[in-house]
Amino acid sequence: MFDLRKLRQFIAVAEELHFGKAAIRLHMSQPPLSRSIHQIEKDLQVELFVRHPHGVELTNEGEVFLNEARNILLTVERAYERTLQAKRGEIGRLVIGYHGSTVFDLLPRLIARFKQKFPQAQIDMHNMNKNEQLLNLRNHSIHIGIIRHVNDEPGITTHIITKEPIYVAVSNRHSLATAKSIAMKSLATEPLIVFPQANRPSFADQTISECRKSGFIPNVVQETEDAVSALVLVSAGLGISLVPHSACNIKIPDVTFIPLNNPKFRVELCCIHLTERRAPVLEAFLQIIKNTPQ
């Protein structure tokens, strides 16, 4: 059968309708070009050209073969280009695991920048807790996880994306709702709702630890699954909650967010991925993370 070189030779003759002109275009002599076309016709057992003293014209079979030959070359060129794009991380599917309030601020901005730079790339997102993210990373089910608290894990690389300030979420009916900022010690007697309750250590443990550093044991009245659940209880007047800045984007009725006057209390937002798995689409997303202002 014929190769791509012969297809290009056939297309040149079909477009020039002259062996001599086609040979000049291909930077080759005419005899080997004629032999190549004859070989294609022999392989196909058809005549592709009607020969005349001053040129050629395509037969019906030649017209069909010309269209198909052009399509084949376009497909090969597209395959070549898309393979290079995949190598650069410009196309492919990026699978992200996330949890909690991480999805309410920085993560959408990271995805938007990634899609702006690589519009052909696809993104799948899955809500999963810390342990589920680690399991799915090791199973190669996700490329990257976005999480807050993670211990050192063998084979897992962790990058700190940002450190978020903390806000106090209170009901609009609470006496602190009109405060400009709130000191940690003023929360000593407040009923406190912490999250998440699973996959410890977590932001809940960090919150309790910061309260103890400020000289009091917090009055924890409830532990919830995530920030949304905590804010629902805050709205109902069951207590207050300390939340990362990203959680302020969660729209729950009758909840006010007030900056905590404690600049040392910040919560890390991290990304995790397999140290050995460096898929191009992952590398491209990590570069977006590195270059995104926090």
UniProtKB/TrEMBL annotation:
Q: Which residues form the HTH lysR-type domain?
A: 2-59
Q: Which InterPro entries match?
A: LysR_HTH_N (IPR000847), LysR_subst-bd (IPR005119), WH-like_DNA-bd_sf (IPR036388), WH_DNA-bd_sf (IPR036390)
Q: Name one GO molecular function term.
A: DNA-binding transcription factor activity
Task: List the GO terms this entry assigns under cellular component, sorted alphabetically.
Answer: protein-DNA complex
| Protein keywords | DNA-binding, Transcription, Transcription regulation
- The keyword Transcription regulation appears for this protein: yes
UniProt xrefs under PANTHER family: HCA OPERON TRANSCRIPTIONAL ACTIVATOR HCAR, TRANSCRIPTIONAL DUAL REGULATOR HCAR-RELATED
| Family indicated by similarity | Belongs to the LysR transcriptional regulatory family.
Protein name as it appears in the record: LysR family transcriptional regulator
- Which organism is the protein's source? SAR86 cluster bacterium
